[in-house]
Specification:
Distance between the termini of chain B: 15 Å
Helix content of chain A: 25-40%
Largest sheet of chain A: 8 strands, antiparallel
Low-confidence stretches of chain B: 1-35
Structural class of chain B: mainly alpha
Radius of gyration of chain A: 23 Å
Number of strands of chain A: 19
Number of helices of chain A: 15
Oligomer: heterodimer
Mean pLDDT of chain A: 97
Strand content of chain B: under 5%
């Protein structure tokens, strides 16, 4: 636990160096864009993690608007060896919010670098700056009558495509594997060089957002979930608005059927019959979107099974709730709809819910919105399930096979219940994998429950890790432990790249366990 | 099978409360001629032109008129209290630094909250 009477300095940096760096940053950016007071920095400190906010307190925050300013910042940071932690919209709530990975780093806030540089409605591509939010881009597309759809994570409106894609987040449309749909980026390196990846380095090229790979080693990947450079522009592909859209849900009453559900539906996903990253949400995830658990249970600890059964019955929800959608002409949709119905008939379980039955009721509505890239914050109801502002995503990857589900569910449930917490989970089905996303929810205002959540998260990582299951992404308090799961060779290569590209370690030290 | 109907979707509720936003236009949805319900999807008309109204509707009301965060409308909440919650966050509510909403916009948004009329009555969600 950090002592908050000490000055907030990054590791290895003296007060004198830090202040000198701030003076130079003020000269570069203007005093208004260098934030040092408690009041100005408080919003950057709040996280939902089980580690104390003081461990992630920024030493300062600076706001940059241009590539030239970012280059200038890199120069100053190198001179004084003082690191920055870049954020775009800083809304990565389940993974660390706007706070630096370690105490004292200067938050480099790129929210004001927010131009929508270009949208090409014919090629269906966009090029944006880091501070652009999904809402801003959605507004732009609608105001300009551009018939393209976004793909956004559940924080939709307030999060942004650059931040989400750089952390390899996912959405719920056919374009839901966001990094797969990213095309070209511009990165400011620690030495001030500006790299354009893919086709972007070719002078006068117009293919930067048309073709991902470019020539020679494909570099985009090394800048995601890492600290090798600062992304200042990112290209992506957008889905053309289809003539028709059919969101639907399939409700399954029996928790034990998760494996059968996956085995029935995944072949349809792989074959493209179900084209989107569909979800299979458990009863608590489904219920949390619209009610707090206090509606049914006022006690502490894990929610008893009998209460979950009652919620399922009275709220009319499933033990598992599938949300998927079809896109295309009405004729195309009809063909695929019949195939899906046939598969469910054959399975002999599950009942369909369509738009005509659900209308504007939640949670169907917010799922229908997310699956077409519309804005909604309804899923934050999860934070109200137990209340208290604590939430960390534990998201191991699994094969998209039924045989993998039950053991992961049972393991997660037993560990969470051991610590008095709830298994609030859903599977997001990708191309061959499932992101098994579990929200470790706790009352951050309760020190004991916070300690339990901290121990629980560590145990989830290690117990799943022992069995060969690792997370696809993790919050800033657990980056080391997650990095270890991927083995010493990976860590060694990560470090070599870091030393080559950022020898003074001035960009987000510690991100994904990477230090110089 | 039923799902509870919550407070009206955020944009509709905000539109009624503020009388400043256009009616949402569904791109493909809205009621069909046969009377079947469908999900209401928002379009161009749902976007307020005034920056404070836009922030209030698209950011604040997305939680606070959807049952995710507490109801703010019609409570004459003090402007300074609203600002404090925005800058500091509170439990599940995140904190918003100046880069995300500057002081001038926050002041305007806080006044919108403070002077807002109560939302239309909706069925109490716990009613059986």
């Amino acid at each position: 636990m950090s002592d908050d009477t000490q000055p907030v300095l990054p590791k290895g940096v003296t007060q004198a160096s830090f202040q000198a760096a701030l003076t130079r940053l003020r000269a570069l950016l203007g005093a208004d864009n260098v934030l040092t007071s408690d009041e100005q920095l408080t919003p950057y400190k709040k996280t939902m993690m089980s580690s104390p906010d003081e461990n992630h307190r920024p030493g300062a925050a600076v706001l940059a608007r241009t590539v030239e300013e970012v280059q200038g910042i890199m120069k100053i940071c190198n001179e004084f060896k003082t690191p920055v932690w870049p954020i775009s919209t800083g809304r990565n709530f389940g993974y660390g919010s706007a706070a630096p990975g370690t105490r004292g780093q200067i938050v480099l806030d790129l929210k004001h670098m927010n131009k929508i540089i270009e949208v090409d409605p014919v090629l269906c591509t966009a090029l944006v700056e880091p501070g652009v939010t999904y809402q801003q881009l959605w507004n732009y597309l609608k105001e300009n009558d551009i018939p393209l759809w976004l793909s956004c994570p559940a924080p939709s409106a307030i999060a942004g495509p650059v931040g989400n894609t750089m952390d390899r987040g996912v959405g719920y449309t056919p374009y839901g594997e966001h990094f797969m749909m990213q095309c070209g980026m511009e990165v400011v390196l620690a030495n001030g060089d500006v790299l354009r990846t893919g086709m972007g380095g070719v002078e006068n090229s117009n293919t930067w957002q048309a073709f991902k790979w470019g020539y020679g080693p494909y570099l985009d990947g090394i800048f995601t979930q890492s600290n090798y450079g600062i992304c200042t522009k990112m290209g992506m592909w957008l889905m053309p608005q289809p003539p028709a859209y059919k969101p639907f849900s399939i409700v399954f009453d029996n928790a034990g059927d998760i494996d059968a559900i996956v085995d029935a539906l995944v072949p349809l996903r792989i074959a493209g019959i179900i084209p989107n990253a569909f979800v299979i949400a458990n009863i608590m995830w489904e219920a949390a979107a619209i009610i707090p658990r206090s509606k049914y249970y006022d006690g502490g600890g894990s929610t008893p099974k009998a209460v979950l059964d009652e919620i399922q019955r009275k709220e009319g929800m499933g033990a598992w709730n599938v949300y998927a959608a079809l896109y295309g002409t009405p004729e195309q949709i009809e063909v695929n709809w019949n195939i899906i119905r046939g598969a469910i008939d054959k399975l002999g379980k599950g009942r369909f819910v369509t738009e005509e039955e659900a209308g504007d009721t939640e949670p169907f509505r917010y799922r229908a919105q997310l699956m077409r890239g519309d804005m909604t914050l309804q899923e934050f109801g999860l934070y109200r399930w137990r209340g208290g502002g604590g939430s960390m995503w534990f998201a191991p990857v699994s094969q998209a096979k039924g045989s993998e589900t039950k053991k992961q569910v049972e393991l997660a449930e037993s560990i969470l219940n051991e610590y008095g917490l709830d298994y609030v989970g859903e599977f997001i089905v990708g191309m061959r994998d499932m992101h098994h996303v579990i929200d470790v929810l706790f009352d951050k205002g309760d020190p004991e429950e916070t300690r339990q959540a901290n121990a629980c998260f560590g145990k989830l990582l290690s117990e799943f890790g022992r069995r060969g299951y690792a997370v696809y992404r993790v919050n800033t308090a657990f980056m080391e432990q997650a990095a270890d799961l991927y083995g010493p060779v990976k860590r060694s290569v990560d470090q070599k790249l870091k030393r080559a590209l950022d020898p003074n370690g001035i960009i987000a030290p510690g991100k994904s366990g990477i230090f110089i | 099978m039923t799902h509870r109907l919550l407070a009206a979707p955020c944009a509709l509720a905000a539109a009624l409360a503020l009388s400043a936003c256009g009616a949402p236009s569904g791109e493909q949805a809205g009621s069909s001629a046969a009377g079947a319900k469908k999900v209401t999807y928002l379009g161009k008309d749902s976007i307020p032109q005034d920056p404070a109204q836009r922030y209030y509707q698209q950011v604040c009301m997305a939680c606070h008129a959807a049952g995710v965060g507490p109801e703010l409308r019609g409570r004459e909440l003090p402007v300074e209290a609203v600002k404090m919650f925005v800058r500091n966050g509170s439990r599940g509510m995140p904190a918003f630094p100046q880069s995300m909403i500057d002081d001038a916009t926050l002041d305007a948004v806080a006044r919108l909250v403070s002077t807002s009329k109560a939302a239309p009555a909706v069925p109490y969600p716990y009613a059986q």
